[in-house]
Amino acid sequence: MKRIILSALMAVVNCTTLFGQTPNLFAPGAPGADAHWPTAAKNGFGTANSLRSKVWFTLAEGVMTEVYYPTLDVPNVQTLQLVVTQGNRVETELDDTVHRLEIPDAAALTFRQVNTAKSGAYKITKTYLTDPERSSVLIDVTFETNDAEECKCSISVYYDPSLNNSGMHDSALRDGDWLVAADNDKASALTAIEYDLDNPVNGYLGINDGLTQLRRGGTITPYVRADKGNVVQMARVRVPFGLARSRERFTFVLAFGRNAGEAITNGAASARKGFAATRAQYEHGWHPYAKTLPRVEPKYQQQFNMCAMVLRALEDKTYRGAMIASPSIPWGGGPNANEPTVSGYHAVWSRDLYQVATAFHAMGDHATANRALDFLFHVQQKPDGSFPQNSRVDGRPIGGGLQMDQVALPLIMAYQFGRTDRQTWLKHIKPAADFIAAKGPATIQDRWEEKPGYSPATIAAEIAGLVCAAHIARQNGAFTSARAYLKRADDWVGNIERWTSTSTGSYQNGRYYMRITANDNPNDGARIEINSGGGNYDEREIIDAGFLELVRLGIKTADDPLIVKSLAVVDKLIKVETPAGDAWYRYNHDAYGERLDGKPYDGRNGAGRLWTLLTGERGEYELARGETAAARKRLDTMLAFANDGLMIPEQVWDRSATSDSAFRLGSGTGSATPLAWSMAQFIRLTLNLESGRNLETPAIVINHYRDRKENERPK
Fold first, then answer.
1. How far apart are CA 26 and CA 273, in angstroms?
2. How does DSSP classify residue 425?
3. What pLDDT is stored for residue 434 in this prediction?
4. Cα–Cα dist 415/350, whole Å
5. CA 390 → CA 394, 397, 705, distances in Å?
6. pLDDT digits over 668-684, tens only?
7. Minimal CA–CA distance to 127: which of 137, 136, 119?
8. pTM of the complete model
9. How far is it, in rounded angstroms, from Cα 537 to Cα 535?
10. Over the range 9-35, which residues count as b (16 or more CB within 10 Å of their CB) and which as e?
């Protein structure tokens, strides 16, 4: 193993010169250009199946993107890629190669990127994994050329750290064999095994980073150190081209720690172990888990396993039970990524956690499902019984909105998971149920986190939550509470059509469920303003399929006349046929998605795209109606929505390809990928089809409203 020099002074003394120039000590031009998070359309996401390795990597467009450390809500990397120079020609993997992704081991989160130069001059193959024993990412690289003499390539590694969830405030220097970056209590250390890194440049993005210098003039002024800014590190991999060697192989180690010394120590240990041994250990850690997964129809098995492994990887390793919505920042998260933000999906929502936990429960992984519920009850839940809009993995609230379905869904989980003990009842179930009974049925925000009012989807969750809470209350002898919860739930069932369906609408003879009503009068023509600049409309004109939650949660039967009638309106207004199959918008006039020209969503002038999970929800409805073939067709569509890394996105493109956009109809957009909710929906629909019923539908709710209906019939 090469020497490790821990002194910045020694790093300056030993720094290699470039083109005969003496390296400058400090780079000028701080703080550099604005930082921007890369695309959220990940096709690779991995981590070791161990608690000791607290690092996660993401892949997109042929390069490594965000790396999370030491928890899943702290991204620390913008990109890491190779730069190839051939004379005056400067090429990057991101811009100048054709990308392909492979899954070399179907029973592990191992991913391989294959990037072929558009010129055909070279091919780069990179395999990614993490060290199960420490916080290091290892990248095995093979660089191939048709003719090494003709190619005369120089290969450099380009690393853009973004420590502590911010593009600014990082400092970078060379420390012996390592490129080190640091920001307060986060540090990274990058080196290469087999070949040395030389000619290091620590500069500021867009000002004097190595790639910017090469593109401007073909020569580099090296800088040993760059402080407090948007720093970029680049160094040449000293491979012996020019000796008729057409294939070279080497390994990058990118390690993290609380400081530079710890990062280097972690990296050095991973380097000593080497890629081959680390890979064997990494994949051995995933293989036993993959063997525990249910066997499903063969055409779905690989996708099913990937969904399960990704969901397992989305659980934080310090704060157990905290499962984030996605390891991504959709559309870059805003104007820039200079400062720490909460704009990404690397946070915990009660609603999303319910979707994930019910998937684990359906798979028979009750331990993981219960950790999720423990996190909700013991970490997120507030003293008044409610839950925050979302939180960091340690439970610190982020958003300030109140979403009543997120208060109700943990009660359904508790019933489904058999959590009916007295302590859970007194400390968690009763406070949440009392809160719902007192504050419902209206919500401050619906399940799309936007509008206040009376939402069929939200009220369905509240009703089911109260019925489940009543059952748990009875088991604990709290009969007065049980009666009160059931009375409230039954009252809301009796009024939900009056509150949330119009009889004077423009479609289906005027009678159908609406997305949401501002008050308890759905026929008053109240105006609803669509978020993100989507316009202002009569609320009777805005439709979604949220009323299907009334069926999924056991409150209404699948053949309920108003449900069937409303579905016809949904299919007329918000269904799109794609090459993969049918897909649906969240609601008509939605503005949460790329702009009309395909450019990233910027908070205004967007256009809502098709949501993959809604196809799964439709499949669950069709299964409840006994239409198994139709439900299976929805599963096939979800299978086709997955990208080449088997990641199912939040949204897919909704129109034919044009010259203005690189997106294809039915393919993933720049939205969150993978989305935990989408991956969980695939698992649930697969297992529900295997079982012939929707496993997450609470039996106590079905039985209560079936018995109630029977009792109401004339004798």
1. 34
2. I
3. 98
4. 16
5. 11, 6, 32
6. 999 999 999 999 999 99
7. 137
8. 0.95
9. 7
10. eebeeebeebeeeebeeebebbbbbeb
